[in-house]
Design goal:
Elements: H1 14-23, H2 30-35, E1 38-41, E2 44-47, H3 64-76, H4 80-89, H5 91-100, H6 111-120, E3 124-130, E4 143-149, E5 162-168, H7 175-184, E6 187-195, H8 196-206, E7 211-216, H9 220-232, E8 238-240, H10 247-258, H11 274-283, E9 287-293, H12 296-304, H13 309-314, H14 317-320, H15 322-329, H16 334-354, H17 363-375, E10 399-407, E11 411-417, E12 419-421, E13 434-446, E14 452-464, E15 476-485, E16 498-510, E17 518-531, E18 539-552, E19 557-571, E20 576-586, E21 591-600, E22 603-613
Length: 614
């Protein structure tokens, strides 16, 4: 028993142990710095944990040496109760120090910790990736978490397994405040344990996000250390940053703590994108197998394509006029009734979860559909959903573009985008109906005058254009703000036309089934505002819209056409009207050519860019 063990062998005084730790430079070991989450900061080495209860030294957050000395005093000192309390609070630290100092002290008695670990322990772990969700700024890049595969449920599913999740505690924040706090790390982030069923319900069903499961080949000692350290992180907060110190970063850190031999985050100083973390884990050889779990909407859409035109019209009637819908399917063969009822049940669930429609929430109507389906006597048939390209096999998230254009002004161009994707990029592995760019930098050099100038700095640019149809009745929307150039007002000297702009709006998108290639057509109405010296009265405020189409002509060749027009009623009232055409051809997975031509008021440009994804 720990309580009965002597504090230390006579030859191992606290002073001797601290001296030995200094001599062997234990505080500089990678394992110790991972356990305490130390990393280089603007003022030197600092732990990323912001909770004071994570340290036993008042200076522990910024001093690995003072923290390890405090841990030795508190875990191996003469006060038995204090020793047990701290050893049980930080069992991974205790075991590591004890091992490195070659101590023979008895193990502490920690019933609460042992009971918790016994309940949560699993023989294997999976890294889970939920695809991007355009309805939440924190999930625009996707989300990752860990699942503990307990493998003791018999015939029941893995939905009973617990998951390890890291997320921001955002509270009621929204809009600009939400974005600002997320960018500046003002939200606290916490680790939590939740049933996998709740995560599947949230992502697969409510938010219609596909899920990828990557089983990791971690051995039992690694998993044991991972869970032991997770116990130490209970009620410990970390600043949550949307770009870098996010869910993916913290989970990779957790894996590194469990197996210090792997290096997963060393090359990500500025940002961490969830899909890139999958690539890193695969590159480290940690993935044993993978599995695709399609979303509720993905399954419903797959089945919906099996209906003919008349049958498709019946589906919305199960919400609007259920009696009419049931009457219309009576004359159909039982196999077609079964298919329609299966789709109707999933559509009702989807409309209830995603759109929060009151008329879709009726459990009575869903029960009526399921009862009718059961009465047909035909066994349920799960739709065969072919797995799409997994996220880690899509194009790398960062992109450099270099090119030259001629027109109203001739220039060379350098464009850098740290993440993530636009509608002309190779679509495999990405949401084909979404566009997201952050910190997109566009610098140009005028060939006639030699001027080097900032043309655009898109802090955020989001475009969501999901096709509006019977099942997925999602609106299209877009949002952007950053430093821009009013090319239409200064075609000859665009370096004098910079301004800060904001644009947001919504609309609808649709496809044309008879066209032999995949395409999306969109119509958007936007509000537009800008402030800068280029404008009369230094600002403009107005609105307008755009109409466009994006077509995947082949697997390597895509085309985008867009026309736009904006009028302004306050400030500078000069209109902004134009059109553009862009075409991209992929030479390899990471190299493409993009041809573009644009007319924006009196400004005309045409050019060719060479794109490298990395």
């Amino acid at each position: 028993m720990f309580l009965l063990a002597p504090p230390l062998h006579a030859r191992n005084s606290l002073a001797d142990l601290i001296q030995k730790a200094r001599k062997e430079k234990l505080s500089q070991r990678r394992e110790w710095r991972l356990l305490l989450h130390y990393s280089p900061g603007p003022f030197g080495l600092e732990s990323e944990a912001s909770s004071s209860n994570f340290f036993l030294s008042p200076q522990g957050r910024r001093s690995p040496q003072k923290e390890i000395e405090a841990d030795i005093r508190e875990m191996f000192g003469p006060d038995i109760q204090k020793r047990e309390k701290n050893a049980c609070r930080f069992p991974a630290r205790y075991a590591w120090i004890k091992s490195k100092l070659a101590l023979k002290t008895a193990a502490p008695s920690c019933p609460a910790f042992e009971a918790w670990k016994k309940e949560i322990f699993a023989p294997s772990v999976s890294l889970i990736f939920a695809s991007a969700y355009m309805g939440n700024p924190a999930s625009l890049y996707g989300h990752t978490f860990l699942r503990l595969n307990q493998e003791n449920h018999g015939s029941s599913s893995d939905l009973l397994d617990p998951t390890l999740n890291f997320a921001a505690a955002t509270g009621p924040e929204n809009g600009f405040s939400y974005a600002a706090k997320g960018l500046l790390g003002l939200f606290p982030g916490y680790y939590s344990v939740l049933p996998y069923a709740r995560k599947v319900e949230e992502y697969n069903d409510f938010e219609s996000r596909d899920i990828w499961e990557y089983k990791l080949n971690l051995d039992s000692s690694t998993i044991d250390l991972l869970l032991t350290h997770l116990w130490e992180l209970n009620h410990v907060s970390f600043p949550y940053y949307f770009f870098n110190k996010n869910c993916s970063y913290q989970l990779l850190k957790l894996i590194e703590v469990a197996d210090p031999r792997v290096h997963l985050i060393d090359h990500w100083p500025l940002y961490v994108i969830p899909a890139d973390t999958i690539r890193a884990v695969k590159k480290a050889g940690l993935v044993q197998s993978e599995r695709y779990r399609p979303a509720l909407l993905t399954r419903a859409m797959r089945q919906f394509k099996l209906l003919n035109h008349a049958e498709k019209k019946i589906i919305p009637l199960f919400i609007k006029s259920p009696d009419t819908a049931f009457q219309k399917i009576k004359s159909l063969p039982k196999s077609r009734q079964a298919l329609i009822l299966d789709i109707a049940a999933e559509d009702l669930q989807y409309q209830s979860d995603y759109r929060k429609k009151k008329e879709a929430v009726s459990s009575q109507e869903r029960y009526r559909i399921l009862a009718a389906r059961a009465g047909l006597g035909i066994p349920p048939q799960e739709p065969k959903i072919p797995a799409p390209t997994p996220p880690e096999e899509g194009h790398p998230s960062a992109r450099i573009s270099m090119g030259q254009s001629a027109g109203s002004s001739d220039f060379t161009e350098f464009d850098w985008r740290p993440g993530l994707h636009d509608l002309l990029d190779p679509p495999a592995g990405y949401n084909p109906d979404g566009e997201l760019a952050m910190m997109n930098l566009d610098v140009r050099r005028d060939l006639k005058t030699g001027h080097v100038y900032l043309h655009n700095l898109d802090l955020v640019r989001i475009l969501a254009v999901p096709p509006f149809d019977t099942i997925a009745r999602k609106p299209s929307w877009n949002f952007s703000f950053g430093l821009k150039t009013a090319d239409e007002l200064a075609p000859k000297d665009p370096w004098n036309a910079n301004y800060f702009g904001f644009r947001a709006g919504g609309g609808a998108s649709f496809d044309m089934p008879l066209v032999p290639w995949r395409q999306i057509n969109y119509v958007l109405v936007d509000a537009d505002a800008g402030a800068g010296q280029i404008f009369r009265n230094y600002y403009r405020l107005g609105g307008g819209g755009k109409i466009g189409t994006v077509a995947d002509l082949t697997t390597q060749w895509r085309l985008r056409l867009e026309g736009f027009g904006f009028g302004y009623f306050l400030g500078d009232t000069r209109a902004d009207i134009g059109a553009k055409i862009e075409s991209q051809y992929d030479l390899t997975r990471a190299i493409s050519l993009r041809l573009k031509a644009e007319r924006n008021g009196p400004d005309k440009q045409a050019g060719l860019n060479f794109l490298i994804y990395y």
